[in-house]
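Hello,

Our lab assistant flagged a job as stuck in the queue for most of the afternoon. It eventually completed. Since we weren't sure the result was trustworthy after the delay, we are filing this so someone can double-check. Below is the sequence as submitted and the structure that was eventually returned. Let us know if re-running is recommended.
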Amino acid sequence: MRSFKFTISGNNYEVDVLKLEGSFAEVEVNGTPYQIEIQRQKAESKTPILVRPSRPNPSGSHEIKREEKDTKTVLSKVLAPLPGNIMQVFVKQGDHVKRGDKILIYEAMKMENNLLAEKDGIIKNLKVHPGDSVLQGDVLLEME
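-- returned structure --
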């Protein structure tokens, strides 16, 4: 049995829940027994549901036109994942690196972190040196 005390519009009520089964309950309010039905509201999700618009079917032919790739070299920028200080740099401009090679060590959040190459490439432009402070998103180097 659970007991509650309510004050409604200045009036005090002592409510004892005697029995609770499903959506029905037997309660006693200030000594008077009642049988009540409990109505529960359905919980609504606060997370928005994203609905993407449907893509229109291309009119005419169903052939997909592909553009030819540009043969120019593409530089990929390596960004600082966290703010910190550069402690040691293991590469220099023009070095060939393979995926997984250690590029530099930086200190962030009082921890030393190794920055590894995510792909094979050539270091084209090194933007940091040992002792430099960097912010999250700063360009550390550019690779080809």
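-- support follow-up --
The delay was a queue issue, not a problem with the job. The result is valid. The chain has a mean pLDDT of 83. Residues 2-37 form one domain.
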